User: Fold this.
Amino acid sequence: MNIVNGVHKILMRLPGTIYLGIAVLIFASSNSLTRKIVEIGQAHAINGRNPISLCNVLFVGNICALGLMTLIFHQDWQPNTLKALTRKDWISLTITGILSGAIAPALIFNALAQTNVTNIVLIGRIEPILTLVLGVWLLGLRVNFWASAGSVISLAGVIVTAFLGSSDQTMTMAGFQIGTGEICVAIAAIIGSISTVVGKLQLQSIPLGIFSIYRNILGTVIFFLLANLLYGPNHFAEVLSPFLWQWMIVYAAIIVVTGQLCWLAGLKKATSTELNLANLVSPIAAIVMAYLILGESPSLAQYLGGSLLLVGIILGFIGHLYEAKVNRELVNPSPRDAMEMAIGFRGV
Assistant:
């Protein structure tokens, strides 16, 4: 146990950028790996049903992740620590748990069945610009010009991808065709941006272990209830399949636990520009992973959208350098400056 605690302390001292980098690499490959695992399950059907269905992946993956996170963070769940949390803390944890732990993942998994991974990646990039907008609106703060410009150009890349590309199941809007999968991704991105802003504030006062485990439990329960309500009790008929569980233990350890914890640790330590830069780099890495893992070749619309995203990455990197310079100049920051640096935004 002392060894585990020692490793934990060392890991918590690492810079936020390292955690963000690891999380980006893991999340960049997550959708492609998920679809690949589902394809493997289709080749090993049980009673005509895929044991590694998308719903089973999310449900069982979260259960495996819960077990691993409990081993890592059980010490955060001490009576004194829990009593220190206010009613407002629990309400906000419950809201973000339902949104980011159940609804958003369900929408992304539904999108995986409707459209290709590259479209999911590119359209999901509306999240960074929405995160910046919410930071300004809800927190009354602002970000530097370069970071904002990078997100705006990235949003333009999303628009190009959505309106020039199409999916099998589409709805017509003003002459454009937008697929059902793309709509699911857009809604999930909105939820993700809200959760990012609220989560960053929550992590200033709520231990990472409580935040992670509570969100996991709540998200898993809500998703299970919704899936049974929408698809019927037989939807999880193969949930006890050993073939499913052996894949999900690996999936949970790498994708859910390691990826999520690295992202949350980075979220707690990093500035808004670093988070924005991580969000901008992620789609490029994910498109590469989709090509390497699934053999997906980008379409013309995706190439155009990806090019705009690349410009956004460059501007975001400039913004990161600018903010680093500003923070170095604040040798003795005021309490307000310290607060703004901690949550990653610059004040008006």
Summary: The beta strands are 141-142, 170-173, 176-179, 346-347. The two ends are 46 Å apart (CA to CA). DSSP finds 14 helices and four strands in the chain. The longest helix spans residues 300-329.
